[in-house]
Amino acid sequence: MRRGSVTLGDLVDRIAMMEVACSRCKWRGRLQVDRLLVQYGDMELPELGCVLAGDCPKAAANAAPASHILQGGVHDLS
C-alpha cells in the first residue's frame, strides 16, 4: 500500500480475479490480478482504473473523465 491506496502487489497473493466495471458504459469484466501486475507493475488501484478507462467509447463524449470501478467481487485463493 502506497500513499493509502491498495496496489496490485497487495492483491496478487490474496485474490486471483478482480471484477471491473465501467462507470460510463455497460462494460464489465473479470481480470486476472497476476496478469495485471505483469502488465502494469505495482500500480495503485485508482490509477489502474483511469488506465483501464482509456478504452471506454463514452469517455471522449463526456467532459468528466471516465473511470472504471474496481469492485470487491473477487475470488479468494485461500
List the helices and strands and how they pair.
Elements: H1 8-11, E1 15-22, E2 28-32, H2 33-40, H3 45-53, E3 68-76
Antiparallel strand pairs: 1-2, 1-3
Describe this structure in words.
The protein has 78 residues and is an alpha+beta fold. Helices cover 27% and strands 28% of the residues. It has one domain. Strands 2-1-3 form a 3-stranded antiparallel beta sheet. The longest helix is centred in the middle third of the chain and has 9 residues, at 45-53. The chain is globular and about 35 Å long. The chain starts with 7 loop residues before the first helix and ends with a strand. Residues 73-78 have low confidence and may be disordered.
